[in-house]
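Late entry, evening session. Most of the bench is empty. Finally got around to the prediction I had been postponing all week. Sequence below, unchanged from the version circulated by S.P.
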Amino acid sequence: MKVNLILSLSLYVIGANQAVQCALLGLQVSTCGKIGQDEFGQEYFNNFVSHRINIDHLKRTSDATTGVACISVDQSGTNTIVVIPAANSLITVSDILAAESTFMSSKVLLCQNEIPYDATLEALKLAKKYQTLSIFNPAPALTLPELAGLISLADIVCPNEVELALLTDLPTQVKYHSCNYRIELHDLFILYYIIL
């Protein structure tokens, strides 16, 4: 049996891709994160600078390499992503608080589970404090109790397939009526959501 597999090594990209896409739409974008002092870190840095993304809160560290993701796609189109967060796992609540002035003037916060839970939680709290619209993609998946704490602060939740299954305990591999997802998500007090 022949198996076609597409394998790609990529920067740890959810947040970076969102930042670049927003910049391409002409929006003013700031990013908060950590990169290693390596080739991937330099690639991140150059990519953000070339798209005029504010990198005042993008810190370099010698304590870890830049995070990457290895993505494989089988012949049926199912993907598997192995994530190595590395430098992003070193972001602290203090790093988020150091960016508080950015929250004061921002209209939207886009965040994901690419950084430690406490740092994401603090970012969502700052968004509430400054009445900044928060959009939360709960990927990579956490356990439901952990996700519930973050979701309760988010204005809009954008789960991927894996996270949707975790949140609703409903099958996502088969066609399922969206009304059932809505009921389950509403039970979690998620009023606004976009299923990716």
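Two things to note before I forget:
Residues 91-196 form a domain with the UDP-N-acetylmuramoyl-L-alanine:D-glutamate ligase fold (CATH 3.40.1190.20).
The longest strand covers residues 54-61.
Will write this up properly tomorrow.
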